[in-house]
Amino acid sequence: MALNQRQTELVEFVHKSGFVTIDALVQHFNVTPQTIRRDLNNLAEDGVIIRHHGGAEATSSSANASYQSRKIMNLDAKEKIAKQVASVIPNGASIFINIGTTTETIAKALLNHSNLNIVTNNIHVATILSAKEDFTVIIAAGEVRHKDGGIIGEATCDFISQFHMDYGIVGISGISSDGSLLDFDFREVKVAQAIIENSTTVILASDHSKFGRNAMVKQGNINQVDHFFTDVQPPIELNEILDAHHIKVHVV
Predict the structure, then answer these.
(1) Spatial contact of 72 and 84, defined as CB atoms under 8 Å apart
(2) Same domain, yes or no, for 135 and 199?
(3) How many whole angstroms separate alpha carbon 176 and alpha carbon 238?
């Protein structure tokens, strides 16, 4: 589901607190207990938080939501972001695309382009883009992660490092208020860093549910990207970092 402003702030509040009661949320947001319970139930169904009797806690920092859940989570926002990312990619460009349901949605949005050259460590992205006869699609070597079709490991990093592409399109699991980019698998993080290091222009695509979301592995910092595509205005602290490093923000 697409989160409204209160739900987005609620997710951030829960993740910062670790666990929070319904009474505390009612007082903080000045709404009825019924409204809070409805929000928590909806967020729990989407895997954004864990619902408990009387409150909620943050999702695990060591395990992501299931792939099938992430495919439908905030899909409308992902599709809008994907359309805008595709609009800045010229025909004939060379592109890295990494693991994630947002990057898979971007791959679909690129199907109207021509003569793209793609290197990816995402089996689903490769499948989507190989439908175009004028695209060159190269899939990275490495270990296939069965839960989501991501390809990871040292061999993947070495493979990625053989290329230098015009654009690197990356997704992320969480963005902290200090600009840290966070994920759940250190092997995936190392591949994403290789993509960032070997791209002329780095594009980060992330919907608002990633703001304040916790994950245990630090991938890098948002100051490493050139463009940030999202669906709502980033929080104040994050905006200050984006402004300080002259990162172009695209709010769809």
Answers:
(1) no
(2) yes
(3) 8
Please write down the long-range contacts of 137-141, taking CB distance under 8 Å and 24 or more positions apart.
140/191
In a domain, 63, yes or no: no
- Assess whether 24 and 147 both reside in one domain: no
* CATH number of 54's domain: 1.10.10.10
Rounded Cα distance between 128 and 6, Å, is 35
Please tell me whether the overall predicted TM-score, pTM, comes out greater than 0.85 for this model: no
Positive or negative: CA dihedral 54, 182, 85, 245: positive
Residue 45 shares a structural domain with residue 77: no
pLDDT tens-digit map of 191-216: 999 999 999 999 999 998 888 877 77
CA distance 190 to 115: 28
Q: Provide the Cα torsion 224, 174, 99, 199; round to 10°.
A: 0
- What pLDDT, on a 0 to 100 scale, did the predictor assign at position 70? 63
